[in-house]
Amino acid sequence: MPSSRRSPWGLPSILLAWSLGSVLACRPAPVAVTSADPARGSDYVEATNEPSPEPAVATAAAPQAEASPRMFAQEVDGAYDELVTGERMRAEYGAGDPWLGAERPTVTIVAFLDYQCPYSKRLLPSLYELVELYPEDLRVVFKHHPLAMHKDARFAATAAIAAGRQGRFWAMHDALFEDQHRLDRASVLDTAGRLGFDLRRFEADLEDSSIAAAVDADVGQSTRLGMRGTPAMFINGRMLSGARPLPELRQEIQSELELAGRMMDAGAQRAHLYAHFMHAALMEAAGAKPSARPDQIADDVRREVSTAGLPRRGAADPRVTIVVCSDFDCPFCSRVRSTLDELLADHPDDVALFYRHLPLPFHKGAEPAARAATAAHAQGKFWKMHDLLFDNQKKRTDADLEKLARKAGVDVKKWRKAFQSEAVAAEVAAQSAACSANDVRGTPGFLVNGRLLSGARPLADFEQVIQEELRRGR
Prior knowledge:
Elements: H1 11-17, E1 26-28, E2 44-46, H2 69-75, E3 99-101, E4 107-113, H3 118-133, E5 138-144, H4 153-164, H5 169-178, H6 185-194, H7 199-206, H8 209-224, E6 232-235, E7 238-241, H9 246-265, H10 273-279, E8 312-314, E9 320-326, H11 331-335, H12 337-346, E10 351-357, H13 366-377, H14 382-391, H15 398-408, H16 412-419, H17 422-437, E11 445-448, E12 451-454, H18 459-472
Parallel strand pairs: 4-5, 9-10
Antiparallel strand pairs: 1-2, 3-5, 4-6, 6-7, 8-10, 9-11, 11-12
């Protein structure tokens, strides 16, 4: 059902707010950023403008998207690509992302916001107003892009996602924007208590690695799409930066409505419109991620890769961290296991390996296998289950997986409950999203101190990258 939420700000007050300025954004300074992730670097400045009025708190729950445009984009062909005018970016979203508006939209806005950015706050009432103005045609999807210059913004994003697990995303979302100067842990916990949250559950979720991975995925996606500040919107894939005035946004939406109408007149189905826009869009902005030089095995990008909660092997205090994105049904993932074993044996004090799930959609047994391994990890049996799953790639029924779990030495009753749980499925999905956000396009993919190395490479290739990293650390 479409959200029944109403904007807490009226149209006259929104128009008054725009008398203060035009395109406003929290953005980096125009200098070279040398940190691992350009979007999370330290060299930022913030424009000085009058703050927007404090909004009221609204608490209506949002519906969730039924499916990901990523999946749809694989299903549609390019029959309507010629009608999709102008450069567009593949601003995809998934079933876990909160949204407001139309069940079957003709226009979709994917908005990346920062809870400490005053211009994200200033844009918010316009987004709410747009949902009311176009209730049958517009969907607004909310994503996170916490900037490094805002020290509490990432924690605030984590808090919003954790609140969503209690069906209270919007209550926390609006409360965080309402008081942008009190986003430290103690203040957010106080807000959660005031809003009636289950505080024990909320605090546990704040430490959940899958929530951290979800924030990482949003940041990785926004960086890949060419974002350098907040807020930024992708209207059917067309990027607009800054807190744009409501009249300008309405003009953009009207243009997209007319284009959508022409596409439907040509035979496009309404339910597939956004997929068609995504099919014609660019995967990443020009120059967003530099590629490897010809003499390199791995690229030069140093992504910020979270390893919290992931299964690990190797050095206790590593100089080189390898995160592998892998699929239990991928033959190349299985082939590289012996290489990784040898690499860890050769560098017992310097290299640690972390495992992250990336079950590919065309391997039907890969996702259940990933859930089986995640459930075993909760009992400290991940690596035993890992080996059994790779050694038995044809055994993927629930009964097969339970037999393998039993062989791994788990408490089967606890394992079965975890294996069938939504939380474990969400954890696998979050890890997969984090791999994609870090530019891993297939399996196996390796992030060596954040640098991408793809494919089941020979030992010498891994060794070259390891030596580069060890020399760098001296």
